[in-house]
Write a structure and sequence with these properties.
The protein has 353 residues and is mostly helical. It is built from 16 helices and two strands. It has two domains: 3-86 and 268-348, no CATH class; 98-260, no CATH class. Helix content is 69%, strand content 1%. Helix 1 packs parallel to helix 3 (50-85) and helix 2 (24-43) runs antiparallel to helix 3 (50-85).
């Protein structure tokens, strides 16, 4: 018996379904290659024993199922993340997704890192308001960011109940602020103190009562929350352990309305419906229906939306291409450029092409 010939033939059979699977591009290439070979070995005559054909077919099926499952596992979290970041009917969820997108808040132990988180938030607000349509953040323009944030803080104080964590922080600061007012009243006297506040107090007790009844809405936020810039404010709330909560409140109440107002006119509602539909199709992919799986995966990979390509949301170590490179590869694979090479491999194992 010619064992060398048998070993050589076995290697050819194995080569049909053994393809590189080290990256996302490998999985895409494998999907098209294995599906083609699987289809041809089922539809064309085979020059060999039926058991050999059955063995090759089963191995192709198994490897195809593996490839489809891997691509599905990469893409589904990507679409879920996009939907979470575009929860147009759930501002709280949208805001939480934005906070999660910033580097882990557990990392913010120093004021600089915390400050950067707030700068990112303010810069996104500016993107859709002050510099509407600029398409870029301007973290280097700190004076602009500081002025913008000062305005955002004033807006928050006018409706402070929508910002429970900010209110909590401000109330702590309000106690210190009132103590400073009591000291000023004591040193200035109730008449001079009243003039400064545009009031005519008849006694020190009346001035004290005025201070007692002061609320957050009656004072300038920068009077009770002293900060030189965004970073110093962020450092102060970080010391109280309120960074993520207050960030989320600003995202929900101010950044979200600005973001939604910008994208609504560009069809964000229709885009979200499309992504939801593709997500359902991805979830329903069956490894037993290869043609349908390829169609759904191609649809998913080509899906785009207003704020960038869907593949920008991929978080997977296997991803080795950007969105444009992926589209180029899909076009190349769809054109059938490797078909003749695959045909030659099929002929070598006995498929009549």
């Amino acid at each position: 018996m010619n064992w060398y010939r048998i070993a050589k033939d076995f290697y050819k059979y194995a080569q049909i379904w053994m393809v590189p699977l080290n990256s996302f591009s490998d999985y895409l290439r494998a999907l098209y290659e294995l599906e083609y070979k699987y289809s041809m070995i089922q539809s064309k005559s085979f020059n060999g024993v039926p058991e050999r054909q059955q063995n090759i077919t089963q191995n192709l099926e198994q490897e195809l199922s593996n490839v489809i499952a891997q691509i599905k596992d990469i893409l589904l979290p990507t679409f879920s993340k996009w939907l979470g970041s575009h929860a147009i009917t759930k501002p709280t969820q949208w805001a939480q997704a934005r906070v999660n997108d910033i580097d882990s808040l557990d990392y913010y132990k120093e004021s600089d890192e915390t400050g950067q988180a707030f700068e990112i938030m303010v810069a996104e607000f500016e993107r859709y308001t002050i510099r509407r349509g600029s398409g870029a953040f301007h973290l280097n323009q700190k004076s602009t960011l500081d002025r913008t944030f000062s305005g955002m803080l004033n807006v928050a104080f006018r409706d402070i109940n929508k910002y429970p964590s900010l209110k909590r922080f401000a109330e702590l600061a309000m106690g210190d602020y009132k103590n400073s007012l009591y000291d000023e009243l004591s040193s200035e006297g109730f008449e001079e103190f009243g003039e400064r506040w545009g009031k005519k107090f008849r006694s020190e007790d009346q001035a004290n009562n005025f201070i007692d009844r002061l609320t957050l809405r009656q004072v300038d936020p920068e009077s009770i929350i002293y900060f030189e810039d965004v970073n110093s404010f962020a450092a102060a709330i970080n010391r109280q352990g309120l960074t993520s909560q207050i960030l989320q409140e600003f995202y929900k109440n101010q950044v979200f309305p600005a973001w939604y107002g910008h994208w609504e006119v560009m069809g964000i509602k229709e885009t979200r419906k499309n992504i939801e539909n593709i997500t359902r199709k991805l979830q329903g992919i069956s490894t037993g229906n290869v043609k349908n799986a390829i169609a759904v995966i191609s649809l998913a990979l080509n899906a785009t939306h207003q704020s960038g390509d869907m593949l920008d949301y991929v978080e997977n170590d296997l991803m080795d291409m950007n969105s444009e490179e992926t589209k180029t590869l899909l076009t190349e694979l769809s054109s059938g450029g490797d078909v003749e090479k695959w045909n030659q491999e099929l002929r070598e194992i006995g498929v009549q092409i």
